[in-house]
Amino acid sequence: MRFPPMNAMKAFEAVVRTGNMVRASEELAVSPSAVSHQIKTLETWFDQPLFDRPGRDLVLNTAGRQFYDLVRPAFEQLRAAANRIIDPPAGKLKVLVCPSLASIWLAPRLDRFLTTHPEIDIELHCHRKTIDLNETDFDCALRYCPVVPENHVGNILMSEEIFPVCAPSLLEGGGLESLDDLRNHKLLNDTLGEAGVPACNWSSWFSEIGMPQLTTPEGYGFSDSNIMYEAACRGIGVALGRSVLVEDYLKQGRLVRPLDVSRRSSYFWHFLSTSAKQSRGPLMAFRGWLTDTLHSSAQNI
User: Fold this and answer.
1) Which CATH number covers residue 41?
2) 47 contacts: CB under 8 Å, gap ≥ 6
3) Which of 24, 238, 242, 269 is within CB 3.0–4.6 Å of 15 for a Cys-Cys bond?
4) Is the pTM value of this prediction over 0.90?
Protein backbone atom coordinates (compact mmCIF):
# COMPACT_ATOMS: atom_id res chain seq x y z
CA MET A 1 0.00 0.00 0.00
CA ARG A 2 1.41 3.38 -1.02
CA PHE A 3 1.59 5.96 1.77
CA PRO A 4 2.25 9.71 1.33
CA PRO A 5 5.45 11.04 2.95
CA MET A 6 4.66 11.84 6.58
CA ASN A 7 6.72 15.03 6.87
CA ALA A 8 5.04 16.38 3.76
CA MET A 9 1.60 15.59 5.19
CA LYS A 10 2.53 17.28 8.48
CA ALA A 11 3.58 20.41 6.61
CA PHE A 12 0.41 20.37 4.50
CA GLU A 13 -1.88 19.96 7.52
CA ALA A 14 -0.07 22.71 9.44
CA VAL A 15 -0.26 25.17 6.54
CA VAL A 16 -3.98 24.65 6.05
CA ARG A 17 -4.79 24.72 9.78
CA THR A 18 -2.67 27.78 10.64
CA GLY A 19 -3.46 29.68 7.46
CA ASN A 20 -0.01 30.31 6.00
CA MET A 21 3.54 28.96 5.68
CA VAL A 22 5.10 31.33 8.21
CA ARG A 23 2.89 30.22 11.09
CA ALA A 24 3.23 26.59 9.98
CA SER A 25 7.03 26.88 9.92
CA GLU A 26 7.04 28.36 13.44
CA GLU A 27 4.90 25.49 14.72
CA LEU A 28 7.05 22.86 12.99
CA ALA A 29 10.31 24.62 13.95
CA VAL A 30 11.60 24.69 10.37
CA SER A 31 12.07 27.44 7.79
CA PRO A 32 9.25 28.60 5.49
CA SER A 33 11.29 27.36 2.53
CA ALA A 34 11.42 23.90 4.10
CA VAL A 35 7.63 23.94 4.46
CA SER A 36 7.30 25.04 0.84
CA HIS A 37 9.56 22.17 -0.22
CA GLN A 38 7.44 19.65 1.69
CA ILE A 39 4.25 20.96 0.06
CA LYS A 40 5.83 20.53 -3.38
CA THR A 41 6.96 17.02 -2.39
CA LEU A 42 3.37 16.08 -1.51
CA GLU A 43 2.01 17.57 -4.74
CA THR A 44 4.64 15.63 -6.69
CA TRP A 45 3.60 12.46 -4.89
CA PHE A 46 -0.05 13.06 -5.89
CA ASP A 47 1.04 14.23 -9.34
CA GLN A 48 -1.30 17.21 -9.07
CA PRO A 49 -1.42 20.56 -7.24
CA LEU A 50 -3.23 20.82 -3.91
CA PHE A 51 -3.22 24.62 -3.84
CA ASP A 52 -4.00 27.41 -6.27
CA ARG A 53 -1.32 30.11 -6.12
CA PRO A 54 -2.68 33.57 -6.89
CA GLY A 55 0.32 35.81 -6.28
CA ARG A 56 2.06 34.84 -3.02
CA ASP A 57 -1.07 33.29 -1.49
CA LEU A 58 -1.89 29.61 -1.12
CA VAL A 59 -5.54 28.67 -1.63
CA LEU A 60 -6.75 25.08 -1.33
CA ASN A 61 -8.14 23.72 -4.57
CA THR A 62 -10.74 20.96 -4.81
CA ALA A 63 -8.21 18.13 -4.48
CA GLY A 64 -6.47 19.85 -1.57
CA ARG A 65 -9.75 20.44 0.28
CA GLN A 66 -10.78 16.83 -0.21
CA PHE A 67 -7.46 15.53 1.12
CA TYR A 68 -7.46 17.90 4.09
CA ASP A 69 -10.99 16.95 5.11
CA LEU A 70 -9.88 13.30 5.16
CA VAL A 71 -6.59 13.68 7.04
CA ARG A 72 -7.65 16.38 9.55
CA PRO A 73 -9.47 13.94 11.90
CA ALA A 74 -6.44 11.64 11.92
CA PHE A 75 -4.09 14.46 12.95
CA GLU A 76 -6.55 15.57 15.64
CA GLN A 77 -6.65 12.05 17.04
CA LEU A 78 -2.84 11.84 17.04
CA ARG A 79 -2.56 15.13 18.94
CA ALA A 80 -5.24 14.05 21.40
CA ALA A 81 -3.50 10.71 21.99
CA ALA A 82 -0.16 12.42 22.61
CA ASN A 83 -1.72 14.97 24.95
CA ARG A 84 -3.40 12.19 26.91
CA ILE A 85 0.02 10.68 27.67
CA ILE A 86 1.86 13.96 28.27
CA ASP A 87 -0.94 15.69 30.14
CA PRO A 88 -3.60 13.23 31.38
CA PRO A 89 -7.10 14.79 31.33
CA ALA A 90 -7.52 14.95 35.10
CA GLY A 91 -10.37 16.85 36.66
CA LYS A 92 -14.11 16.73 37.20
CA LEU A 93 -16.63 16.06 34.46
CA LYS A 94 -20.32 16.87 34.92
CA VAL A 95 -22.56 15.07 32.45
CA LEU A 96 -26.26 15.73 31.93
CA VAL A 97 -28.07 12.64 30.66
CA CYS A 98 -31.62 11.41 30.13
CA PRO A 99 -32.64 8.92 32.89
CA SER A 100 -33.49 6.14 30.45
CA LEU A 101 -30.13 6.28 28.67
CA ALA A 102 -28.27 6.62 31.97
CA SER A 103 -29.81 3.57 33.63
CA ILE A 104 -30.22 1.24 30.65
CA TRP A 105 -27.27 2.02 28.38
CA LEU A 106 -24.63 4.19 30.06
CA ALA A 107 -24.42 2.78 33.60
CA PRO A 108 -23.67 -0.82 32.51
CA ARG A 109 -20.74 0.45 30.41
CA LEU A 110 -19.42 3.24 32.63
CA ASP A 111 -16.98 1.04 34.55
CA ARG A 112 -14.86 0.78 31.40
CA PHE A 113 -14.46 4.55 31.28
CA LEU A 114 -13.69 4.75 35.00
CA THR A 115 -11.07 2.01 34.68
CA THR A 116 -9.42 3.73 31.72
CA HIS A 117 -9.56 7.21 33.28
CA PRO A 118 -9.25 6.89 37.07
CA GLU A 119 -7.93 10.48 37.15
CA ILE A 120 -11.34 11.86 36.09
CA ASP A 121 -14.10 12.39 38.64
CA ILE A 122 -17.35 12.02 36.75
CA GLU A 123 -20.77 13.17 37.91
CA LEU A 124 -23.91 11.96 36.13
CA HIS A 125 -26.98 14.14 36.53
CA CYS A 126 -30.25 12.73 35.21
CA HIS A 127 -32.73 15.23 33.88
CA ARG A 128 -35.51 15.08 31.30
CA LYS A 129 -35.90 18.82 30.72
CA THR A 130 -33.92 20.65 28.06
CA ILE A 131 -31.17 22.69 29.75
CA ASP A 132 -28.96 25.30 28.12
CA LEU A 133 -25.39 24.16 28.81
CA ASN A 134 -24.17 27.75 28.39
CA GLU A 135 -26.03 28.74 31.55
CA THR A 136 -24.91 25.89 33.82
CA ASP A 137 -21.70 24.22 34.97
CA PHE A 138 -22.50 21.00 33.13
CA ASP A 139 -19.70 20.14 30.71
CA CYS A 140 -21.75 18.10 28.27
CA ALA A 141 -25.06 16.34 27.74
CA LEU A 142 -26.36 13.19 26.10
CA ARG A 143 -29.71 14.29 24.75
CA TYR A 144 -32.44 12.85 22.54
CA CYS A 145 -33.30 15.55 20.01
CA PRO A 146 -33.73 16.05 16.24
CA VAL A 147 -30.80 18.47 15.76
CA VAL A 148 -28.02 20.16 17.74
CA PRO A 149 -29.72 22.95 19.72
CA GLU A 150 -28.90 26.59 19.00
CA ASN A 151 -25.74 27.92 20.71
CA HIS A 152 -24.44 24.39 21.28
CA VAL A 153 -21.91 22.20 19.51
CA GLY A 154 -22.14 18.46 19.13
CA ASN A 155 -22.70 15.46 16.96
CA ILE A 156 -25.00 12.48 16.52
CA LEU A 157 -23.97 9.48 18.59
CA MET A 158 -26.73 7.02 17.74
CA SER A 159 -29.88 6.74 15.68
CA GLU A 160 -32.82 4.59 16.74
CA GLU A 161 -35.16 2.06 15.22
CA ILE A 162 -38.52 1.59 16.95
CA PHE A 163 -40.21 -1.84 17.03
CA PRO A 164 -42.40 -4.02 19.30
CA VAL A 165 -40.69 -6.14 21.99
CA CYS A 166 -42.03 -8.59 24.53
CA ALA A 167 -41.03 -11.42 26.83
CA PRO A 168 -40.38 -14.79 25.13
CA SER A 169 -43.18 -16.25 27.22
CA LEU A 170 -45.76 -14.17 25.32
CA LEU A 171 -44.91 -16.05 22.13
CA GLU A 172 -45.65 -19.47 23.60
CA GLY A 173 -48.60 -21.02 21.83
CA GLY A 174 -48.71 -18.34 19.10
CA GLY A 175 -51.10 -15.45 19.30
CA LEU A 176 -48.62 -12.73 18.30
CA GLU A 177 -47.83 -13.32 14.65
CA SER A 178 -49.19 -10.14 13.04
CA LEU A 179 -49.86 -6.50 13.86
CA ASP A 180 -53.57 -7.26 14.22
CA ASP A 181 -52.69 -9.70 17.03
CA LEU A 182 -51.57 -6.72 19.11
CA ARG A 183 -55.27 -6.06 19.72
CA ASN A 184 -55.24 -9.08 22.01
CA HIS A 185 -52.36 -7.89 24.18
CA LYS A 186 -51.82 -5.14 26.70
CA LEU A 187 -49.58 -2.45 25.22
CA LEU A 188 -47.07 -0.77 27.50
CA ASN A 189 -46.90 2.96 26.84
CA ASP A 190 -44.01 5.35 27.38
CA THR A 191 -45.84 8.36 28.78
CA LEU A 192 -42.78 10.53 28.09
CA GLY A 193 -43.37 9.69 24.46
CA GLU A 194 -47.02 10.60 24.79
CA ALA A 195 -45.87 13.96 26.21
CA GLY A 196 -44.21 15.01 22.97
CA VAL A 197 -41.18 12.93 22.01
CA PRO A 198 -41.99 11.28 18.68
CA ALA A 199 -41.26 7.62 18.01
CA CYS A 200 -41.90 6.60 21.60
CA ASN A 201 -45.68 6.12 21.61
CA TRP A 202 -47.92 3.54 20.01
CA SER A 203 -50.32 6.00 18.40
CA SER A 204 -47.69 7.73 16.23
CA TRP A 205 -45.96 4.40 15.53
CA PHE A 206 -49.17 2.79 14.26
CA SER A 207 -49.91 5.83 12.10
CA GLU A 208 -46.47 5.86 10.52
CA ILE A 209 -46.59 2.16 9.57
CA GLY A 210 -50.00 2.69 7.98
CA MET A 211 -52.14 1.06 10.68
CA PRO A 212 -53.94 4.03 12.32
CA GLN A 213 -56.89 1.80 13.19
CA LEU A 214 -54.75 0.30 15.96
CA THR A 215 -54.27 3.58 17.81
CA THR A 216 -56.55 2.91 20.79
CA PRO A 217 -55.75 -0.55 22.19
CA GLU A 218 -55.79 -1.12 25.94
CA GLY A 219 -52.54 -0.74 27.81
CA TYR A 220 -50.55 0.55 30.75
CA GLY A 221 -48.51 3.75 31.05
CA PHE A 222 -45.00 4.26 32.42
CA SER A 223 -43.05 7.48 32.89
CA ASP A 224 -39.73 5.57 33.07
CA SER A 225 -38.52 3.45 30.14
CA ASN A 226 -36.44 1.28 32.46
CA ILE A 227 -39.53 0.25 34.46
CA MET A 228 -41.55 -0.24 31.27
CA TYR A 229 -38.99 -2.66 29.80
CA GLU A 230 -38.73 -4.54 33.09
CA ALA A 231 -42.51 -4.94 33.00
CA ALA A 232 -42.25 -6.22 29.45
CA CYS A 233 -39.59 -8.73 30.53
CA ARG A 234 -42.08 -10.11 33.06
CA GLY A 235 -44.71 -10.71 30.39
CA ILE A 236 -47.07 -7.93 31.44
CA GLY A 237 -47.46 -6.69 27.87
CA VAL A 238 -45.85 -5.57 24.63
CA ALA A 239 -43.67 -2.45 24.62
CA LEU A 240 -42.24 -0.32 21.85
CA GLY A 241 -38.53 -1.04 21.86
CA ARG A 242 -36.10 1.74 21.09
CA SER A 243 -33.10 -0.03 19.61
CA VAL A 244 -30.51 1.76 21.74
CA LEU A 245 -32.39 1.09 24.98
CA VAL A 246 -33.37 -2.55 24.33
CA GLU A 247 -30.06 -3.67 22.81
CA ASP A 248 -28.88 -5.42 25.97
CA TYR A 249 -32.32 -6.90 26.75
CA LEU A 250 -32.37 -8.52 23.30
CA LYS A 251 -28.81 -9.84 23.61
CA GLN A 252 -29.65 -11.36 27.00
CA GLY A 253 -32.81 -12.96 25.62
CA ARG A 254 -35.03 -11.23 28.18
CA LEU A 255 -36.91 -9.52 25.35
CA VAL A 256 -37.57 -10.62 21.77
CA ARG A 257 -38.91 -9.03 18.61
CA PRO A 258 -42.21 -10.79 17.84
CA LEU A 259 -42.79 -8.91 14.56
CA ASP A 260 -40.42 -7.88 11.81
CA VAL A 261 -41.77 -4.32 11.60
CA SER A 262 -39.93 -1.14 12.60
CA ARG A 263 -39.56 2.53 11.77
CA ARG A 264 -36.67 4.95 12.20
CA SER A 265 -37.00 7.72 14.74
CA SER A 266 -36.65 11.32 13.57
CA TYR A 267 -34.80 12.00 16.83
CA PHE A 268 -31.16 11.04 17.56
CA TRP A 269 -28.97 10.64 20.62
CA HIS A 270 -26.59 13.61 20.50
CA PHE A 271 -23.39 14.43 22.34
CA LEU A 272 -23.67 18.13 23.18
CA SER A 273 -21.40 20.75 24.68
CA THR A 274 -20.54 24.41 24.12
CA SER A 275 -17.77 26.19 22.26
CA ALA A 276 -16.22 27.31 25.55
CA LYS A 277 -16.20 23.83 27.13
CA GLN A 278 -15.64 21.41 24.25
CA SER A 279 -11.81 21.44 24.48
CA ARG A 280 -11.59 20.49 28.17
CA GLY A 281 -9.45 17.41 28.68
CA PRO A 282 -11.96 15.33 30.68
CA LEU A 283 -14.72 16.10 28.20
CA MET A 284 -12.57 15.13 25.21
CA ALA A 285 -11.61 11.88 26.96
CA PHE A 286 -15.27 11.05 27.64
CA ARG A 287 -16.28 11.88 24.09
CA GLY A 288 -13.49 9.71 22.70
CA TRP A 289 -14.51 6.82 24.95
CA LEU A 290 -18.12 7.08 23.79
CA THR A 291 -17.01 7.01 20.15
CA ASP A 292 -14.77 3.98 20.74
CA THR A 293 -17.52 2.16 22.66
CA LEU A 294 -20.07 2.70 19.91
CA HIS A 295 -17.56 1.68 17.24
CA SER A 296 -16.78 -1.58 19.07
CA SER A 297 -20.49 -2.26 19.57
CA ALA A 298 -21.17 -1.76 15.86
CA GLN A 299 -18.39 -4.21 14.94
CA ASN A 300 -19.86 -6.86 17.25
CA ILE A 301 -23.39 -6.68 15.85
Assistant:
1) 1.10.10.10
2) none
3) 24
4) no
Task: Say whether both 142 and 271 belong to one domain.
Answer: yes
Instruction: Round to whole Å and give the CA distance between 101 and 129.
Output: 14
Residue range(s) defining the domain that contains residue 43: 6-86
Q: 147 lies in a domain?
A: yes
Q: What is the rounded distance in angstroms from the CA atom of residue 236 to the CA atom of residue 245?
A: 18
Residues 121-161: tens digit of each pLDDT: 999 998 877 889 999 999 999 998 889 999 999 999 999 99
> In whole angstroms, what is the distance from residue 235 CA to residue 151 CA?
44
Instruction: Kindly state whether residue 1 falls inside one of the protein's structural domains.
Output: no
Cross-strand pairs, 190: 222
- Verify that 290 and 224 share a domain, yes or no: no
Burial 18-53 (b: 16+ CB within 10 A, else e): eeebeebbeebebeeeebbebbebbbeeeeeebbee
Q: For 167-270, where are the alpha helices, taking DSSP H only? A: 191-194, 202-208, 225-233, 243-252
Q: What is the pLDDT of residues 171-181, one digit of tens each?
A: 887 778 888 88
The dihedral through the CA atoms of 47, 50, 54, 58 has a sign that is negative
Say whether both 223 and 253 belong to one domain: yes
